[in-house]
Every structure is written in structure tokens, then in C-alpha cells.
Input
Amino acid sequence: MTSPASDHSTDHGADDLTAPLLDPTFYAGDPFSLYARLRAEAPVTRNPTLGFWVASRHAEVTAISRDPDTFCSGKGVMVFEIGSEYPTPPSIMHTDPPDHTRYRALVQPGFRPPFIRGLEDGVRARARTLVDRLEPGVPVDVVSELAVPLPLQVISDLLGVPESEWPRLFRWSEAVIPGATDWPEEERQALSAEMVNYLLAAAADRRLSPGDDIISELAAAEIEGERLSDAELAMFLVQLLVAGNETTRNMMSGGLVGFAETPGEWGALRTRVAGSAPRALAIAVEEMLRWTTPVVSFMRTATRDTILGDQQISGGDPVLMLYASANRDEEVFGSTGERFDAARDPNPHLAFGFGAHFCIGAALARLEGRVVLEELLARFGSVESAGPVMRTASPVIAGVRSAPLVFGAATP
Ligand code: HEM
Output
């Protein structure tokens, strides 16, 4: 699966800087000082071991994302896929125009803004039940108590999956993320297969008797007489389950850690929100997204020779877009890019990607972030660290395994 894409005889002098990117444990520590060096010393540079380029600045990540003709997704979107040739795309993320355009047209209606807005009451009810269990002054792991269950429950409601299936759903979504768990490969494979079978059966069932859920919506979606095939539908549902859980989870846990580690931010946001500035909440969610950047990076493959930054890229070369670095680029976020600033505005982060593949679930993730923040702010006057934060050793998902925090009572 992993073969160098092309033979470059002249490596950039700073290429060694990219070596840690191949080590999953690097991501469980503090990767940001290396990202800063990459941006400063080698903003477009090639990893000599696997032959992929690394783009660490906002400008190049944006340029790659807006040009799918030159930088395609069909040959893999993650480093472990380098060298892959797929007979059929394993996900919508692995498609390019015109197939990608067709998929987007078919699935986008399921995510249209009125539909997402209509989910707010349900999301709030789920969030309230979880937040009501937290007590002021009592340390809590916000990962297991809040960040894991909420997105899982919301996506289950969306898919029409009953509560009895939540534990299975959770294991499935964990199994498909590289590095999210230390489960044996065979177990992960078996769980993935089980998930696909379950979703295929659910799709077949909803085609026969549609309900008020997204599976039914997608099963019935039609463009010029064309529908998603069963295999495409299952592929898309897998994607929703995975993308809707892991990422949103880490936006919440990572964002709350940002508040806990940055004194004054929680109180200042409470004051802005109390001063009836609802936009303050939305702005804070954007900073939770930027500062955490739940998806560390995605990859593209050059379809032809091209120039990126000051480097000559050859057709066939994989190029990694380091969102986590681009989101701290001093050219865009100034000298405070490393700081968590819940009032940062404007905030042109790339946490949801950019261009044709821009995250379909962005509005849903933002809704969940806003609602959970609002419910927490209404009850608690402060949030502080109550122990070390444990991070996931994954090159794809900036995961928080546990984050002990303590919320303080709100004083009237
Ligand atoms: C904080 C939460 C989230 C983050 C940070 C996030 C991040 C991303 C990113 C970076 C991409 C771009 C992929 C690319 O360019 O190759 C993407 C695409 C996608 N996301 Fe999300 N996502 C989040 C939540 C969700 C949710 C809640 C859903 C669905 C329920 C979702 C579904 C998708 C899908 C289907 C795509 C593929 C779009 C395409 O290829 O056209 N995401 N997401």
C-alpha cells in the first residue's frame, strides 16, 4: 500500500522535519511546535520515506483544496492509502468530479439548513440530559460524560437507530478510525464488516418502509431519475456515522480543554452571551474548531506536474494538507494563532476543509457545539483542568481520550 510516488533525486534540506508525521505517538504529544517550524522553514516539503509532500501553510492548503482537477481525491485521502487504486471509491471523500458532483447533489438535500435547524430541539434535549448530570466542583471526564455520548446520540437519532444499538454503534465508529483504539486489526475489520451489514439492512428496510430519518431521505433521493445504489448508500451511511461522531466529539472535548487551559475565556464568553450577543456563541464554536482542528490532515494526489509554493510537484505525487498547521498560520491568524481566543473574529479556519469537499455535516457540528456550550454556560461559572489530558495517537483525528475538568457553580 505504501510506495514512494515518484523518484525525486533532490530532496529539500529540511525534509527530516516531516519524519515525526509518520509516528502516530507524535500526535498524542504537542505537535504544534513542529508545525510552526514547517511553516517557517519548509512550508511545502517532501517526506523522503513515503514520497508525499506536506503543505503546512493556510495559502497552499487552500490552493490545493480549491483545485480538484490538479489535486484529486480518488487515489486516497490519507497517508496510509498512498499507492491505492480503488475499483470503486470507498467513500464520497474519495471521489472526484463528475462522480463527486453527483454524490453531493444526491446527499446535500439531507443536510439542507432548514432540516438541520429543525434538529435543534432534539439536540438540546439530549445535551441537557447529559449536562444536568454534571455537578459543580466535582471533577468529570468530559470525554466519556459529554463529548462521546452527545454526537453518538444525535447521529443515532438522525439515522433512526434505536437506543439499544448505541453501544454497537460506538464500537463500530471507533473501529474504523486508524489509531483511535489499540484493538487488533482482525477485530477492527470484523466490526467494520458488521457495521456495513447493519447499515445495508437498515437502508433496504427504509427503502421498503420509509420513516422520518436521514436513511429514508437518502434512500429516496433522486437526481434526473438516478438514485444512490445500495452499495453507495451504505458507503455514505458509514461515512456519516464515522464523520459525525469522532470529529464532533473532539471539537467539544478539545474546545472545552481550550477554555480550561486559558484563564478568563469562559467568564468573558459568559459576559458576552449574557449581554445578549448570540453571535458570541457561534464565534466561540469557530475557535473550538480552529484550535482543536479535529481532522489533522487529509491528502490529495497531483494529477499533473504543477507548482505549489516554491516547489515543483510531479504528477502522481501525494500531497498532505496539514489543516492543524494551517489553522495556526501566523500569516492569517497573526501572532496569537497558538492562543485559544473565544472572541476571535474573523476566523477563516480550515477545520471543515475547503472547496468541493467542504464538510457536509458542518452545520450539524456547529449546531451541536453551540447548543452544548450554551447549556454549559447557563449552568457553570467556570471551567478548569482537574488532571492531565490524554490524547489519541492518530495521524488523522486529533482525539482527546480523556480530559478531567471541573466546572464551577454559576454565581448569580
Ligand atoms: C467538528 C466536526 C467535523 C469536522 C472537523 C469535519 C471535518 C471534515 C473535513 C476536513 C472534511 C473535508 C474532507 C476532504 O476535503 O477530503 C469533511 C468532509 C465530510 N464530512 Fe465532516 N467534519 C465534521 C463533522 C461532520 C458531521 C457531523 C458529518 C455528518 C453527519 C460529516 C460528514 C462529512 C462528509 C460526508 C464529508 C465528505 C464530503 C465530500 O467529500 O464531499 N462531518 N469533514
